[in-house]
Amino acid sequence: MDYIIDIIMIAISAALINNFVLYYFVGICPFIGVSRKVDMAFGMGLAVTFVICIAAFLSWTVTTLILVPGAPLSSYIAGFFLSPEKAAQVDLSVLSYIVYIFAISSSVQFVEMYVRKFFPALYKSFGVFLPLITTNCAILFACLTIMSHIAGVDNPADRWDLGQALVLAFFGGVGFTIAIVIMAGIREELELCDIPKPLEGAAITLIVGGILALGFMGFTGVDSGLRKALTPDQPLEAAIYNQTENAILIADSRGRPPLPDGEGLAGSISKWAPGHKSLSTEGTGDLNAHLEMAIK
Known about the structure:
Layout: H1 2-17, H2 28-33, H3 38-67, H4 72-78, H5 84-87, H6 96-118, H7 120-126, H8 137-148, H9 162-190, H10 202-216, H11 222-230, H12 236-253, H13 265-272, H14 287-295
Helix pairs in contact: 1-9, 1-11, 3-4, 3-6, 3-8, 3-9, 6-7, 6-8, 8-9, 9-10, 12-13, 12-14
């Protein structure tokens, strides 16, 4: 159940709340250059979504199997030249940018050949912007985000699997498509308006983009409210234990002594916070107080 909720949160966040274009401001080049007509913008959105999914699959696979420390393939190859301990510590994440750009450019070449063969009119309308998907920072941003959730986590259990990576990529592309189609619809209407000459072209487009970004800020907090609605209620004591466990992990990282064998969370709190009442007798306490007392 928790995994399904995480998938839903990743999807909603990538498409609406943390929209790549309107929140992180990546992928602005095609957002400005290919948003004159709705049909052209929609085609670009589909192309970017397709490329970003392929790039995410390749980047997750290469990162998991080769780039991160302890990756099976790199450790196996390094084992021929190094001791097993050193082979397990080989870190090739410094090559991530090169590998991801290569994966993105390969995906774009595949899309370009497909569109040129089956949709020649759309290919001509894209012009130079289709090859420029290779340098679309929204795609590279998605790959680096996936890497941060693989190599940038301390607990191996928190690493993203392929499903989570593909959900981020697909709905990130959906969010890009939503943003660029909305912008294209507005720009088609702006052609009928009397716009001051200094604001024509990219200037009014950037102003409209900023207003859209402000509008998308209205989705802020939807993810936390939805997660709260989807998560089943748990007893207060279980909630206290969950938050206290996180607090103890934080305290351990700050140099606290490890937990003695057989010592429970309540005992640990009593040890680190003298005078703290038992969890079983303090059923209505403030959870934040438990967290704060545990890490002080």
